[in-house]
Amino acid sequence: MKAIKALVVFMGILLVVGLGLIGYGVATRTGKPETAAKPHAVATGAAAEFGVVTIPVPAGARLDQTLVVGEKVVLRVTGGGAERLIVLDPADGRITGSFVLSPENTKGR
Questions:
Q1: Residue 74 in contact with residue 86, Cβ under 8 Å?
Q2: Within a domain: residue 97?
Q3: Which of 20, 23, 50, 54 is the most exposed place for a label (fewest CB within 10 A)?
Q4: Rounded mean pLDDT of 51-72?
């Protein structure tokens, strides 16, 4: 009987210590706000001047959105016909490509 009492007391102590450790872990993790990863800046040389760049767009079109994606600039042009995405290289202002978005032909399906 003495052994059972000692075992019960020992297990009670283990429960209290375990709950204390869990409480400590929760308190230390919630006490400090997580630091967000700082965006790293890419060191680049001074941008070379490229003068005036003419970007052809249909009549009635307007620049709807400008996005920087990686090392490219994407212009979203709407109106004046089909919507298009124009991809530019900001280093020299050169048009590297464009996407013309047109409705899918559903005839014949």
A1: yes
A2: yes
A3: 54
A4: 85
